[in-house]
From TrEMBL, chain A:
Residues spanning the membrane: 27-48, 68-89, 110-131, 151-179, 191-219, 242-262, 274-296, 308-332, 344-364, 384-407, 419-441, 461-483, 554-572, 584-605
Residue ranges constituting the Cytochrome oxidase subunit I profile domain according to the UniProt record: 9-521
Known catalytic reactions: 4 Fe(II)-[cytochrome c] + O2 + 8 H(+)(in) = 4 Fe(III)-[cytochrome c] + 2 H2O + 4 H(+)(out)
Subcellular location: Cell membrane; Membrane
Entries under PANTHER family matching the protein: CYTOCHROME C OXIDASE SUBUNIT 1 (PTHR10422:SF44)
InterPro entries: Cyt_c_oxase-like_su1_dom (IPR023616), Cyt_c_oxase-like_su1_sf (IPR036927), Cyt_C_Oxase_1 (IPR000883), Cyt_c_Oxase_su1_BS (IPR023615), Cyt_c_oxidase_su1_bac (IPR014241)
Name assigned to this protein: Cytochrome c oxidase subunit 1
Taxonomic source organism: Lysinibacillus contaminans
From TrEMBL, chain B:
UniProt-recorded name of the protein: Cytochrome B oxidoreductase
One Pfam assignment: COX3
CDD domains: Ubiquinol_oxidase_III
Keywords on record: Cell membrane, Membrane, Transmembrane, Transmembrane helix
Residue ranges annotated for the Heme-copper oxidase subunit III family profile domain, each copy included: 1-206
Stated family: Belongs to the cytochrome c oxidase subunit 3 family.
TrEMBL record, chain C:
Main location: membrane
Domain Cytochrome oxidase subunit II transmembrane region profile: 23-121
Protein name, per record: Cytochrome c oxidase subunit 2
CDD domains (UniProt xref): CuRO_CcO_Caa3_II
Subcellular location: Cell membrane; Membrane
Amino acid sequence: MSSHTQKKSFGASVWDYITTVDHKKLAVMYLLAGTLFFAIAGFEALLMRIQLMKPNNDFISAGFFNELLTMHGTTMLFLAATPLLFAFMNMLVPLQIGARDVAFPFLNSLGFWLFFLGAVFLHLSFFMGGAPDAGWTSYASLSLYSPGHGIDFYVLGLQISGFGTLISGLNFIVTIITMRAPGMTFMRMPLFTWTALVSSALILFAFPPLTVGLVLMLFDRMFGGNFFDHTMGGNTVIWEHLFWIFGHPEVYILVLPAFGLFSEIIPTFSRKRLFGYSSMVFATILIGFLGFMVWAHHMFTTGLGPTANAIFAVATMAIAVPTGMKVFNWILTIWGGSIKVTTPMLYALGFIPSFVAGGVTGVMQASAPLDYQLHDSYFIVAHFHYVIVGGIVTALFGSAHFYWPIFFNRMLDEKLGKWTFWVFFIGFHLTFFVQHFLGLMGMPRRVFTYMEGQGWDQFNYISTVGAAMMGVGVVMMVINCLLSIKRPPAGRDPWGDGRTLEWAIPQPIPFYNFRQTPLVRGLDPYWIEKQEGNKEGMIYAEPLGDIHMPNNSALPFVISLGLFIAAFGALYSPLGVAEDSRTWAIPVLIIGLLITFGAMIVRSVKDDHGFHLHKEEILEIEEQLYGKGGKK
Amino acid sequence: MDYNTKFTPHTWPDHPEQATMEGKNKVVGFWIFLACEVVLFASLFATYLALKNKGPAGMEFSTQELFELPLAFAMTMLLLTSSLTSVYAIYHMRNFNFKAMQTWLAITLLLGLGFLCLEIYEFYHYVHLGFTFSQSAFSTAFYTLVGTHGAHVTLGLIWFTTLMIRNAKRGLNLYNAPKFFVAALYWHFIDVVWVFIFTVVYLMGVIG
Amino acid sequence: MMKGLKKWRLFSLLTVMMVFLSGCGEEYLSTLKPSGEVGKEQLNLLLLTTGIMTLVVVVVSVIYLLAFVKFRRSKVGENVIPKQVEGSHTLEIIWTVIPIILLLIIAVPVVTATYKFADVAAMDEVDENGNKTALTVNVTAKLYWWEFEYPNQGIITAQELVVPTGEKVYFNLKAADVKHSFWIPAIGGKMDTNVENVNKFYLVFDKESEGLKDGVFYGKCAELCGPSHALMDFKVKSLSPDAFDAWVTSMQETEGQTADKESSDLGEATFANSCLGCHAVSGSGSAPGMGPNLTTYGDRNRLAGFLDHTEEDLKAWIKDPAEFKPGNLMMNADGTAPIYGNLSDEEIQALATYIMGLSVEK
């Protein structure tokens, strides 16, 4: 029932992780799964860069290259960046707002398993007749034309993992609305929690259009639907709209939490509260809002007409204003502070110029007539990698260093961390800076090769060298993480300048997070308590008493597994690619759905009241964790 | 207040669905889920409007010829009434009158079933005319939009049935009160979506 | 005074950028060395936005580095607790208003140019005889090749677009199978070819392509369209108006030209038996072909849009087209052999000689 017994067998630990509903364990699982897919997608990128290292290269074939570019994009966005950010959101949001868990611990686990099994399903395509090959955008005419099962893997895999993301997003919103500790008003929430809230709201409104788009695609491919078949009156531009109504907010879904992470790192290592907190909150909301108004800037060349193009061009430029506000507020946070250059801070340092460079090329592409030249060229490849690597990946790496002690009660090695930063950072600029020029020199994106004599050879070579450096950087990062197992416990507030509640909790964090719910007296509560000399780090809103906690459950895993099994049935059913159907397909589909719905009915019919942890048990757990009187 | 507390109509709280933290979370969460459903249906409506009356050259079906308002109106009335009866059910839930609640839920269920039967008849009729799912982009979009709503109705009926059976012996308590409330909320949402379908697909199809 | 200084600074920045940028790319391919009105205006926009945006990056980075250097803990002291500043309304307003002004400076030319480039009203203008005055080309993108039809001239060609210099050339763009995108980087921005509708835009060619390295501008497909997306190139020959008219006339004169199955030339006979079903050898008319029209093959610069234009390459291509352009439609559905079967070496040799000889310019 409770997870405080020590020394478990391996099987028991695995079972514990499969059934857990503890947001901290799920965060660790998100972190591991996200890293796995990050590594896979990074490897795919390296293969592509090797192929493009010299003209007329035949390292990989044209068809396989298209599979790689599709899976690289899809995996990085849906299966690497999203779960890695979810890892931080899962770990930090409840701690930052003083909650014992998220609002729906069961759904939290369900969200993870749906995401993970959907992702595994998508990746099995490599071994089962070919991965999707129509780009991560999977434009309808090409994806309907694409032979084999690749696109079916894309549709079904993303559908399942998309549900997971949606459920998690919903969970975070409710958690932040209802589970805040006394005194934790909205305008006292740490900025990361704010960005988690806005980003979750974006998930909520952006994923349904994707779900619909995928369903339409599924109907067209499997049930003889005609949404995108123009000979039957269909229209492929509908897919473009639905995809980008999702796809553009998706960028902000990822980048806002990254902003949030830097908004925690920068004040901590400047020893200064975030400059212009309220305008930062306002800018976050504004970016989220505008993010939904600009999707058609991905479609300037589709032929929507000058009025639509002009409106979307101007709307897109408008996003630069709140983003600029954020950048200047970060700079003013540093200004007048006391800056300690730790590894996380180094990443923050690298982030600002890189991200600004990515942002300004965004404004250039928002200029519709100019975008006619830039669209679908290597310029756009450079642009979004500057935003995603320069903005999101630096945030993830920096925060991994910053929050490692919260996750594992260990510090990462600072020296190795700084080396990693420089290798990765230089590699990143080497890879992508020259790609701006490749695009301007006429190189289209998504090409598996190019001829000699077009003036692209040198820059492509440089780009590949840079990519190799990034690869080395990632390996160094992973080694650093592994080495941390051997390091001594970090203890509470290891950076010494923690400001928010998560740093106030004694380490290792007990599964119920807070023995007593804290009382929050202002922005940066831990900083306030420290300044007033409160050794405890918190003041409490309640006396020590019984704690109500949720039960573990295997049902989320079973529900997700059912869908995972059913997806194979659907894929190989006679409805799909008729010549490649299997006789077992329909039974498997039915069995899978029965498992899922059966598990859902069990969940619905059984009462699950959770359990109460009594005062004595709490004291016993804490004695085990921290020794008598908190000294161990 | 605890799940195991036994209640009388006097001690039963005014808003039993929000009396526990879990209940409160569930209600807030469900409202947010409905916001997400709104976007889902908005996407389907947009797709339908883009593909309305679009088909292969020389297509013989159009909204004007196909749809019959009396049938759609009857379906609307059934669903609107069922929404009203679900309100009664929740009214009795708040009064701690389990029996009356179950009765009204049963009536809601029957009305919903009636709606579903009419919809199945309608689809059957269209398919019989040759307006199949694969006939044109218009037919695909029509069946997808209205069918998604129909699937929601079916899910709602299964949900109500499960709730009624699972709680038949338990009676009302603070653990299942939010479940009833949220199911009723879902039912209202389905109703609202249907009002839009009736207007956009049927009324605007025949008249506009 | 200050304003003048600022303008001057911006100008000098632009000049530096110009020198730097113009050092990049090949004249027949680079957006940085445009040879047409549309491309030139787009380059101007690029320089304007790059100038402003470089300014932004530089300003931000300088302030940032300055802050970083000035407020290091080693400088301010280990135990100093800085003043906890909440924010500043004045500053917030400043860094909201300045970006808005910068964006407005960009937005005005952007909106103007958006409407300008979309203005294709002249496509429908007619002279007193009811003939269209503007030159229109119907572009159809097909899996890995391009078809160019001149509806007003009644001629059709493929893979190599021929246009006159000094006038607006209007394009109707459409895809026959999956979505592609029509792009001639050195002339102007791209436009997608959709499957369900015709997109229209115009380009202007200022310079005759004669003097370029290969004598042609390079065209590209810019939308992922399958395995051979990277190889879906085409070439553009821009001629003086007179030369263009002459070309049109010689194309029109090929009316009725065909290959004879009974011909004593083995190449022509083989062509008639194996190729003519898809590839026409008459440039007159407007019937779309299953495969590229080969009337002007001998005048072209490349084989299949990207391979060397030699007899050797042509023979290898005929033998196994899929080796060079994976996924192309010259193969049987199962991909084992070309649809015309496996020809003998002798036939292939004769066929190559025949095809190389197809020309309207020689």
